[in-house]
Amino acid sequence: MKVTLAEIASEAGVSVTTVDRVLNDRAGVRPRTREIVLEIARRRGWFGPVEEEPAIRMDFVLPAGSNTFMGLLHQYILEEARNYGGIQAMVHVVDGLEPDHMALRLNSLVGKTDAVGLVTLDHPSVRAAIETLSDNGVPVASLVSDLPSLQKAGYIGIDNRSAGRLAGLLMGRFLHPDKTHDVVIVIGSLSYRGHEEREMGFKSILAQDFRNLRISEIVEVSDDRDRAYTEMRRILGRAPPSAIYSVGSGNQGIGQALSEAGIHRETVFIAHDLTGATKRMLLDGTLDAVIDQNPRVEAREVVKLLASAVRGAAEPQYLPRLQVVFAENIPEL
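Above: the chain sequence. Below: its structure as tokens.
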């Protein structure tokens, strides 16, 4: 049975009207949207039977833990691989803060996979494992946190330094300019280049434009909500800050500590990644803003990038856009 306009629209995440415009070559559709719709239509056989190609085996290696964003990314990768067709996808979950565990898993994939996507910290043993995969002809793509200077198919994720500067700009605007404010930075792990870049961007804009904001403490919580809760309880017991910037995960622990102290509506709190938990905290006023990077888009783009790399095709990169989410503009998850 021929694929319908509605099925193409559902997979592309656009309206049936948009699909109709694209397939009938009418104006009024952004080039990128047009490209996505045409690709799905070709793959689903709108223009005629599609020649069967050998299935591609893709392996994705993600960090374990209580990070809700990574759970969403895991889910969307499998969904997008299934929707793309012709892909056998497997997601491996390892201790993300143990580079030897990550390197061991990557090395175990040599000779067994066609392509690898991963979220990992920047460490010599991990870099060596990625180089081994590349030397054996396996395209590798980094997700969320980049690993520059390595030979790989590409990076799918946001500009993390810009994301940190955006967080600093929001915080500077939220806080009264005529007062000095203490700010606490809660970091997942400095071993993740993405977290390091966010911290750098945040600090740079504070030094440049908001010198009344003083960083009183930087605490590393290994993206663990229980540790984030414990550390925030300690900080609040000593000297509650005016604002908190959460660079990685652990937001639920921070929010719980603020609520128990009765200051969740008084403390400016900015975090990353829209999940069910951060959505609830936006709605109850615990979080003031969330900087989102859209894991569904990242999953779609990395699957497409790796499939094209395996088939020897050139594939442009479309990095997810930074989106600031407030209580009033929460998109559907």
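The two ends are 31 Å apart (CA to CA).
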